[in-house]
Amino acid sequence: MSKKEVPIVIITGYLGSGKTTLMQNILKQEKRKIALIVNDMGSINIDASILNKTGNQVAQIEMVEMQNGCICCTLRDEFMAEIERLSKDKSIEAIFVEASGISEPSSIAGAFLNYVESTESTRVYLKAVVSVVDVDRIYREFLHSLSSGDEAEDGDIINLIMDQIEFCNLLILNKTDLLDEAQLKEVKAGLRGLQQEAEMIECVNGNVDLDVILNREDFDFDEVEMYSAVQKAINNCEHDDEKACVDEYGISSFVFEERKPFNRDAFNKLVEDYPEELIRSKGYIWFSDDWEHVQLFEQAGRNASITELSEWVSAWPKEELDKVVADFPDLTNDWDKTYGDRINQVVFIGKGFEKADIVKLLYDCIEEAV
Questions:
Q1: Which SS3 state, helix, strand or coil, does residue 113 take?
Q2: Rg (CA), the chain
């Protein structure tokens, strides 16, 4: 097996958070020779064109533009091929990846780690997943329950922003000059409710020292996954406790589990008039009018989304199901005689709510489906 010598740093963050400005500043520091991969969803890679204008320093490194897709899905194979090609240049000391603003960092990191584990000859390893946060936007639109009411900010977008905050091992808090001390403190407390372990670095105009990013412990996928408030709530909260768990930031969380399905209309009405005290909700649900599909429910602030995912295993054709159960008998250890593997399991995270009140709202949406 080859020695892992070339650190990879993935830079994530929503559109306008300051990822390109951060990269411009890093490229000017001339501390190490780095290569840069820039991913943009459009047919013209605007970020790459901006970076090309940074000056002579860019000419001293290799920059790869990847467009018309996202490296976490449609461009995944091309992304890995470029990583491997760049790593063969012995003069390159690190590779930075500026992900598209709508990329899911967990998908990029997962794909990268799967590649590294299956490729013995590779010289690369994942050093950090960095999330660049526009603190002014978080203060105005998230902490204040997205009070702008702008319909363009749909649930998918704000949930993506939250995912980017939750899945990283370094948070760069950008545009801190736009907030006063009290506002910034409020933002940091809110972020800590979602991401409790990653180091936070405050900056203006993406001005961060390169060594601060590279001189840290290597990225640990399992550990970072455990950082998120959602995962901590799943692991730490007692489902039958009358009260929700409360952390040092005053953020409460609990896990709701129920085998019986939701009535779709009732649940949609709940989402339309969602309790303001809930900051974040995420989990899998199912509806009484659809015994086949797993639904992903996500909420952040005033925005929520329900996305149809895969099929429940118990919805598979009997012949196929019998074969799977024969091969994997443990599959039925948590199997309900009526509902099979179907279950509603959602984490609720918020501040100042009563768990009993939220649970009652949820049970008002539950329907007997036998």
A1: helix
A2: 22
Tokens of 42: 């459009």
Any bridge partners for residue 129, and if so which? 10
What residues contact residue 234 under an 8 Å CB cut-off, 6+ apart?
255, 347
Domains 6-227 and 230-363 share a fold: no
CATH class (in words) of the domain with range 230-363: alpha beta
pLDDT in tens, 164-219: 888 899 999 999 999 999 999 989 988 887 787 889 999 998 899 989 999 988 88
Please name every residue paired with 345 in a beta bridge, in sequence order, or none if there are none: 257, 284
Q: Residue 99 corresponds to which tokens in the numbers above?
A: 């992900």
Tens of pLDDT, residue by residue over 347-365, are 887 777 888 888 999 999 9
Q: Where are the alpha helices (DSSP H) in 175-236?
A: 181-194, 210-214, 221-227, 229-236
Amino acid at 268: N
Q: Taking a C-beta distance cutoff of 8 angstroms, is the pair 70, 100 a contact?
A: yes
DSSP 177: G
Element (H, E) at 367: none
In the chain, the amino acid numbered 321 is: L
Q: Cα–Cα distance between 189 and 251 in angstroms, integer?
A: 9
Laid out side by side, the sheet with 290-300 consists of 245-246, 252-258, 344-350, 278-287, 290-300, 303-311
The domain ranges of the chain are 6-227, 230-363
CATH architecture of 6-227: 3-Layer(aba) Sandwich (3.40)
Question: In the numeric block, which tokens belong to residue 357?
Answer: 């009140």
Helix-helix angle 155-166:105-118, to 10 degrees: 50
- Measured over the CA atoms of residue 16, residue 18, residue 23 and residue 24, the dihedral's sign is positive
Phi, psi of 163 (to 5 degrees): -60, -40
